[in-house]
Amino acid sequence: MRLCAKHRTPVIAFGTGTSLEGHVGAVRGGVCIDLGGMNRVLEVNVDDLDCRVQAGVTRKQLNAYVKDTGLFFPIDPGADASLGGMTATRGSGTMAVRYGTMRENVLGLTVVLADGRMIRTGTRARKSAAGYDLTRLFVGSEGTLGVITEIALRLHPVPQAISSAVCAFPSLADAVNTVITAIQSGIPVARIELLDDVMMRGVNAHAGFHYAERPTLFFEFHGTEAAVAEQAGMLGEIAREHGGLAFQWAMRPEERSRLWQARDNTLYAGMALRPGSKALITDVCVPISRLAECIVATRRDIDASGLVVPIVGHVGDGNFHLLVLVKPGDAGELARAEALNERLVHRALAMGGTCTGEHGIGAGKIAFLAAEHGESVAVMRAVKAALDPQNLMNPGKIFAA
Amino acid sequence: MRLCAKHRTPVIAFGTGTSLEGHVGAVRGGVCIDLGGMNRVLEVNVDDLDCRVQAGVTRKQLNAYVKDTGLFFPIDPGADASLGGMTATRGSGTMAVRYGTMRENVLGLTVVLADGRMIRTGTRARKSAAGYDLTRLFVGSEGTLGVITEIALRLHPVPQAISSAVCAFPSLADAVNTVITAIQSGIPVARIELLDDVMMRGVNAHAGFHYAERPTLFFEFHGTEAAVAEQAGMLGEIAREHGGLAFQWAMRPEERSRLWQARDNTLYAGMALRPGSKALITDVCVPISRLAECIVATRRDIDASGLVVPIVGHVGDGNFHLLVLVKPGDAGELARAEALNERLVHRALAMGGTCTGEHGIGAGKIAFLAAEHGESVAVMRAVKAALDPQNLMNPGKIFAA
Question: pTM of the predicted model, to two decimals?
Answer without folding.
Answer: 0.97
